[in-house]
Amino acid sequence: MRTMKTAFIALSLILCAGSLLAQNFQFDTSRIATPPRATLPQERMTLKAFEASAALRILPENEKVEKSQRLSKSRVVEFTRGWRIERDPLEGALLIAQPADNPNTEGTFDESKLREMSVELLKRIGVPRSEIGRVETRSLVASDADGDEKEPGRPQLILYKTFVIREINGVPVEGHRAVVSHTPAGSLHRANLLWPALAGSGHRLETKLTVPQITARASEVLRRNGEQKGKVSLRWKYVPVKQQSGEVALRLVVGARIQSAPGTEPREITVPVD
Amino acid sequence: MTQRIRMFCLTIVIVTFAVWPAMAARETHVYGIANFGGSGQCGSSSMTHPVHVNTAAAFASWFTALKTAGLWEDVRIRDNSSARGSYFTDKSKSGSCSCTGDDAHADYGADDADVIYVHTHGGHSESPAFSSLSMGNSSYDCSVQTDQNMLWNSDLDLAVIKACQSGDYDTWKNGGYRQAFTKQNGVFRMWNAFHGDSSCGDHVTAYVKWYVESSTYDGVGENWLDAAYDDNSGDGDDDCPVSIVIGETHNKRVSLFENGGWKDRKDTGSKTGSTYFYFKGCAPSSGRKLPN
After folding, report:
1. CATH class given for the domain over A47-145+152-194
2. B 126-155 residues with CB below 8 A of A?
3. Which residues of A touch B254 (CB under 8 A)?
4. What is the pTM (predicted TM-score) of this model?
5. Distance CA B28, CA A167 (A)
6. Most exposed of A193, B103, B199, B202 (fewest Cβ within 10 Å)?
7. What residues does each domain of chain A span?
8. Assembly ipTM
9. CATH class for domain B26-277?
């Protein structure tokens, strides 16, 4: 009986200490209240998207590969008459660029139309709709200052950049995105993708942890990384785990974003939930 | 006479080899400064972010691949205590900052390379106009400033700086990152950095790798903005990468931003003006919302 009492007191003290330590962080758990679906959509990005034919699908019909060069073990550059294609199936990278003089900066274009055009282009390459998350267009501008001028010139629109974030089951995949660039008149300038193919198996998409268990674990991981206190926003994310083929398996984790002291970078620290 | 000619030739060969490292035409240095607050280190332990060396390694690894392909010559990793303040300080500025100027130190100094990458903590001031970078060795300057320490007048062409506030808009507007750290007849011409604070984590390693691998042929400025921009899932506190290009005319500066790459770091002529490339309306913490 006495042993049980001692054990109970010890356990209470440990829980109390844990809770006090956790109080040094103020967690926003609103984004992890519901766990994401634990299955992947049927249609997935495959290694076929990294074949030259996939890139050629978005170029004019008369564009053919005329020469190629190997830049690394897995990155190949191919030149057509008017375009350059860089493919790296092992890294999941694809770049389609128009080597040209400075882009023509005349005109403006409807941004919602650019978003539609960018998504359509990705689909033609082989990116399934079910992997496309947030789509946002930003204006890349340039401002000049010549000599000792204090007042820079009016910013000039150089390109529209449409950012397409890879999300599966509504969860972003760390680091994966496509950026499609259009000239102010709306013609394609460049498409740059980091969007590796998904593996057929080996994904870890679910967690058995409850929200309090996740915050307790997050506290522990944050402290291990030298953080002591602050507001922390928790979000689901998938971390891609590279396979030998270049495909990736997804692992569900929580990203703990902490607002650090001024003068240090805001950090996002990965919290395992398996 | 023949003996004299032989001696002369030998001297030429010896001198050539002696200065060769400093003259390497395609040389990259990376400086990942992750450890702070320990013995011999700068800053406080709360500044320690292990990922800073991972991003530096990712940057270096692509140049190692290019070297293997015969497209690059030299890659040096100078992390933590090897990233001395003196390696970012020009000799001519030693007097003003009471520090040691050694930026052309062969294989170590930032101005000895053609391309550098730095991942550390940073800050800025609008007037006087400068950005500061935290260094890795307390025996030298622990903080180097773009105005007080830096003058890129030797080899450096392009700098990629992953540090908060390293390319602040108002600092640029007030003359920072211009004549303060480059010479009119110098070769230095691109400073890829951040307006405001920028986030840190494993995602940075992913985007630095993507950026460096995409920029062999062109887009050396443009790809930086593609890779490093982040709207923080729409929550505010954006990551606002910027590219500052120094050169003679708007067209030459845009040409380097768009068409320059590691293989062709386009000459921008006399360094009499600069262009600030950014995303309209980008709104970070520790920096104003960028103008429309």
Report:
1. alpha beta
2. none
3. 102, 142, 158
4. 0.91
5. 35
6. B202
7. 26-39+201-272, 47-145+152-194
8. 0.90
9. alpha beta
